[in-house]
Design brief:
The protein contains 15 helices and no strands. The chain is mostly helical.
Length: 356
Amino acid sequence: MAIYRIADMIRMRRKALNWTQEELIQLYNAGDESRDISGDRARGQKGEKDSDQSNEICSVQVLHRIENGEVQKVKINVYQDIMEKFGILPERMYASLMVTDSKALNLKIEIDTYFYTDHYEYVEKELQKLEVMMIPGYARNEQYLMERRATFAYMQRKIPPEEYLKILWNALRLTIPMIDEIDISEWPFNEEEFNILSGIGNAYHFMEEREKELEFFLKLKENVEKEYMDTAHYVVWHMRALSGLSQLMCRERWHKKSIEYCKIGIEECKEQRILGKVYDFLYDIVWNKEQQIREGIFDRVESPEEREALIKEERAFCKEMLAQAYNLSLAQGSIHDSEKIKMLYQEFYPKEAKLL
């Protein structure tokens, strides 16, 4: 699970549920107005309660300070109480999977690697091993298995996108029962939930639900840009949202906007010194630039010689980017993506030397 700030967790959930600070305070203090921010109860006798009112959760002013990050430490039982008022399962607040063997976490990493490198033939066998190590009746465990198996079946074309979408929304409801009532741009998600959201965007794509897909990815981008997670997760999650938007822009032939999203993603990867899926952004940039050339982006150039020179320069740049994308995909072990890049290169530049 990513590292989050308590201030963001409280503020974002409250706003996503359309609650005022007063309403949250009223719910928190219902039946127990004597709990303070340090988690201690009042001594029970009139006048014995701590006179420092600035530490009492029953105050809207204190909640305001918490949400603004002015209160740095909140006792765990206070935090749990607040989260439960939001309908958050206690088990969802901290842990990832609940397992009986530490080897299970390494097994989970192996399964995720098989997915990312398109080695689906190993997935179900490893999932069965992992399931044996999981504690039954734990929502996060059930959610993970539901999402992985659905994605496994979907990637092998055993279930249609409509069924895949339904399963993913049901998986989200296991840890966020109110998911249908909230604005996803406002709610703070954990890593597994964000994986599910990425799959939902993919399902909309293959269902050709363009309006829903655009609205969904714009909200996902807005969500991540609130930066409630640590830097490493921010970059990876932001790239997913940008990639989804870029590919949608490609299909709608909004070439400039697609290239803009790609450049943002590449720059963020460079700044954080991570590879991510830079090769996807490079692929999209080349595809868009070729479409622009074919649609006559240089037609206004008066001299035919100058036009040809500009096209030659642009295509040299594109070939260089595709070669870089291909090498990056190979380095990261993504066979599917490397083949996709190779096919695009051969389609656009059949007379050129092959990538490999």
